[in-house]
Automatic annotation (TrEMBL):
Record keyword Cytoplasm present: no
Protein family according to the UniProt entry: Belongs to the peptidase M17 family.
Keyword match Hydrolase: yes
Molecular function per GO: manganese ion binding; metalloaminopeptidase activity
Protein's name according to its UniProt entry: Leucyl aminopeptidase family protein
Organism: Roseovarius bejariae
Amino acid sequence: MGLNFATDTKGAIPLHVVGQDALDDWMATQPERVAAWVKAAGFSAALGKVLMVPGEDGSLAMAIAGYGTPEARARGRFHLAAVALSLPEGVYRFEGLPEGRAEEEALGWLLAGYVFDRYRTQTAPGAKLVAPEGVEAARLEAIAAGECLTRDLINTPTSDMGPSELEAACVAMAAQHEAEIEVIRGDELLERNFPLIHTVGRAAAPGAAPRLIDMQWGVAGPLLTLVGKGVCFDTGGLNLKPGGSMALMKKDMGGAATVLGLAQMIMELGLPLRLRVLIPAVENAVSGNAFRPGDILTARNGLTVEINNTDAEGRLVLADALAYAAEAEPDFMLSMATLTGAARVAVGPDLAPYFCDDAAFVGAVEQAAAQVADPVWRLPLHLPYEAMIEPGIADLDNAPKGGFAGAITAALFLRRFAGEVRYAHFDVYGWNPEAKPARPKGGVGMGARAILQSLPDVLKA
């Protein structure tokens, strides 16, 4: 199927999109043999179901995609992606798609073509789609490519996606889009005043030394800075995770992967802005020089941090990166991270929770999320909880005791390093635990498409 629309549209097979309540009316408009075929097949137009209809010569003349009921559609998204996987190889064009649904369903069709075949041969589905009329095909293709980059990065295990490989992916992206890139590695982090990034990553093997990746693109327009957590594997450090909790820690760089997917979309579409991407890339490993519970560290901006749990390392590496980003006074700054289990408990794996007090961003991203079927959910930066991240012996506590409001206290911690810059933080999951239309089980982008859609309004505010 691939991530592109069909270029040769001659002879495209009609794919009639029919809701359950409209099936009888639709059949009344069809030749008698078609109506008889549909009745004989017992086709009800249930959501996601498909029926192939042969022509008089036995070849495939058309297909019918069930569009279900409004109530069924409200419980999901990308409904025709399931149909795309059920169709035989060929080129198809939508017929009768309800107004306003073309962009979502066309993008879902593209995303349904994603396969992760690095480690075993997999065949992508062969049904290709003609871009529906009125849809910006190139834009949707760029969005699909960015999303699939995010998926590939998350799905790749740390043996092939450690800090050095994540750096290589950034270098390749910079070369593709003529962006500038600088990488600060190892002990140079201390020399350049990134102590928290160095501390979290110093216990890793020499080939996985900690680093800060800094990519910049564009020469004019407002400055947008994206900061992504790049913890390529998280053992928990000396506060070692149990085996079950470590199983998915290859995805702990999901914030970096999502930021890179978004950056890919922005650069491919040539948006009129200046883009900066900062990724602190580390492996939180265990060795004789690992940082310890009880240590007190001094961050780039001078704030001291008491370490009460070495498994709360993501906010540490982000802190130095955010402080560095804020020094350039961007017009908007955004961080993305697979940061807390508390966010997953609060909203589950489908929603991208975020924290922001900037009214322009909140309004724009909420509207955009509904438009592009990329749901987000705002959580509060509740000021009375500031006291929970202040341990007394240091300015900040990286892991407040008690377990309450873990996602909120993490976001409040990060905001201490964002200065006076307009800022939003996304605490994403980055993983789809079970296959859904257009989203196979595995790594997944969250919030990037909503952010992309919102940028014109956010950056003009």
